[in-house]
Amino acid sequence: MSNMHFKPLTLRIFVSWGLVLGLALPTHADNTQAINDAKPIIKQFGESLKSELQHAMKTSGPVAAIEVCNTQAPVITHKSGQAGWEVARTSLKWRNPDNQPDVWERKQLNAFEAKLAAGANPDTLWAVEETDTQIRVMKAIPTQGICLTCHGDPSVLSPDVKAKLQALYPQDQATGYKQGDLRGAFTLIKMKDEAH
């Protein structure tokens, strides 16, 4: 995503098993409203993607789950947009280069990393920015144990997983995570003329 320009949703996909659960950020009323608007969108997105990935994992294994994320996550992303919000995911260590964070997202991801290192609960990590033209919301995605099948230590990933990642994501940077690390974030944007 280039600075202040939201890329097509179908291009902003990476494999992630992170599911957003927490919902708290003490902020002023406008930020609270933006977060409250984003919560059900993020929940629907996370639950839909998790369901697809779990089914693929259970029936056919992690290589199939990678394929599902590659083909089905864009569809789920598109369906998750509600009331003018566009939803995507980003990460400091992206799998798909189209998921690279813009300047604001990178700043928030670095802030999330610092807060996690200081002991913050990842479920409380939100960021909101409101300008004259748009509202942006981000929610941290922590790395869960199941994420490590495709995002863990590259030396222990199965050869089949490595081969599928290389085939689908030749520029992949999204390995080497440990449980509890910041995997990335859900990132939402709404243009102001649609917000009021």
Shape type: globular
Structural class: alpha+beta
CA-CA gap between termini: 25 Å
Largest sheet: 4 strands, antiparallel
Mean pLDDT reading: 82
Rg, Cα atoms, Å: 16 Å
Q: Say how many strands there are.
A: 4
Helix percentage: 40-55%
SSE succession:
HHEHEEHHEH
Please describe the topology of this protein:
Layout lengths: L28 H32 L1 H19 L5 E5 L12 H15 L8 E5 L3 E9 L5 H4 L7 H10 L13 E10 H4 L1
Antiparallel strand pairs: 1-4, 2-3, 3-4
Helix pairs in contact: 1-2, 2-5
Outline of the structure:
The chain is α+β, with helices and mostly antiparallel strands and 196 residues long.
Give a structural overview.
This protein is an alpha+beta fold. It has a 4-stranded antiparallel sheet, with helices on both faces. The protein has helices at about 30-60, 60-80, 105-115, 150, 160-170, 190-195, and strands at about 85-90, 125-130, 135-140, 180-190.
Q: What are the defining features of this structure?
A:
single chain, 196 residues, alpha+beta, four-stranded antiparallel sheet, globular
